[in-house]
Write a structure and sequence with these properties.
With about 240 residues, this protein is mainly alpha-helical. Helix content is about 65%, strand content about 5%. The protein has nine helices and four strands; from the N terminus they run E-E-H-H-H-E-E-H-H-H-H-H-H. The strands form two sheets. The protein has a two-stranded antiparallel ribbon.
Length: about 240
């Protein structure tokens, strides 16, 4: 069944309203992209064969043109692989990819968040609080939702750095990491540990304690990678 895409599942198109507020506009391809991304993260789309575009378009009640646009965008994000004359397939989760994603996050994200903490204004600090509260409220049984809220929280700590290229790269890594976040949180007790680590991170961010935040975030990303490697290596 088709669902509406949650906030931040696709890059929005922004315009200015008459009173100065921001209007966020999503195209049909944006919405389809969000729905398909959700299903990839949840593990309900994909498998060994190519995506059946006719069936998916019929299920979503859309034509194949915006669906193809959405699938092409997800290929650019790295969530799908395009195969000539076969369409798109969902790539397998592997130790090698996890090491690459989380290794790059380790190099970029802790330092960016630490710099951001020092220069964030009041509105940006409030955004970090809001995303943490949303992550706190997310039901542990709905792991794809938790993964989305987790991405929004991590990105809220990075965006105040005001370095567009750095933000873009970290966002792409965060999108690729969502499937791995779901896998990481499945064993009992992992969600409670992650919650405590996120609480420590937000406290350091709001206190503008850059050194502590950098250390906490680095340890958080590394421990997640270590858990993932153990789980993926043990998987059949």
């Amino acid at each position: 069944m088709a669902t509406s895409s949650p906030p931040e599942t696709a890059p929005p198109v922004e315009g200015r309203a008459k009173g100065g507020g921001v209007i966020v506009v999503q195209t049909l391809a944006d919405r389809i992209c969000g729905i398909v991304r959700e299903r990839i993260v949840a593990g309900t789309l994909g498998g060994d064969g190519p995506i059946r575009q006719d069936a998916l378009a019929a299920e979503l009640g859309v034509s194949k043109i915006p669906l193809r646009e959405a699938l092409a965008r997800l290929e650019q994000e790295g969530l799908l692989h395009g195969v000539a004359n076969r369409g798109y397939t969902v790539g397998a989760m592997t130790v090698g990819q996890a090491e690459e994603i989380y290794g790059l996050r380790l190099r970029l994200e802790p330092a960016a968040a630490a710099r951001a903490a020092l220069i964030a204004d009041g509105e940006e600090q409030a955004r970090v609080r809001t995303t943490f509260e949303a992550l706190d409220r997310a039901a542990t049984g709905d792991l794809p939702r938790v993964a989305l809220c987790n991405r929004q929280f991590h990105m809220a700590m990075v965006r105040p750095v005001r370095q567009p290229l750095t933000i873009q790269i970290i966002r792409q890594l965060a999108v690729l990491a969502e499937r791995y976040v779901v896998a990481h949180l499945q064993p009992a007790g992992r969600d409670a540990r992650a919650h405590l680590e996120h609480r420590e991170q937000i406290e350091a961010f709001l206190a503008r304690d850059a050194d502590r935040l950098k250390a906490l975030l680095g340890a958080h990303i590394q421990s997640t990678l270590d858990d993932l490697k153990g789980g993926l290596q043990a998987a059949p």
